[in-house]
Write a structure and sequence with these properties.
It is a single chain. This protein has 3 helices and 9 strands, in the order αβββαβββαβββ. The chain has about 140 residues and is α+β, with helices and mostly antiparallel strands. Strands 1, 2, 3, 4, 5, 6 and 9 form a 7-stranded mixed β-sheet that branches. Strands 7-8 form a two-stranded antiparallel sheet. Strand 2 and strand 3 form a beta hairpin. Helix 1 crosses helix 2.
Length: about 140
Amino acid sequence: MDLRFPIGAGDADRATDIFERLLEKSGNGTHHLVINVVVDDRHHALTNLRFEQHDDSLHISAYEALKFCRLLATGLSGLTGGIAMRTFSADSESVRCWKIADGDPLPLNRAETFSAYCYNPFTREIKAPEPGVQYEDAPVIHF
């Protein structure tokens, strides 16, 4: 079954700007981004992106970044969903989350991130937090 995703005028440009802000705010480390967009009650679109960033370099797949931005643009067109960023550095592992609502990725605070990350939206079950993972306030990435 093919699904068509609506993208409004300007959503692709906005998605690119927001994606650039995500990269700017991610900091140093290895990052795993996941975006989930709710199309309807039965359909979710999901993609992920891994990248590595250091003070002077960024290692990222252009193809995977394009897929991520395309789905982000879809979410910004008025659908709902969420973004999670897991960051691995030499001595820590952290998670930050945003909810997509009313065409904006809104940052979740540490408690909201903990709740969102420990909840499975597909099964509606609560899962135990992962040991050693720090749940952090997400930075503002919309404008």
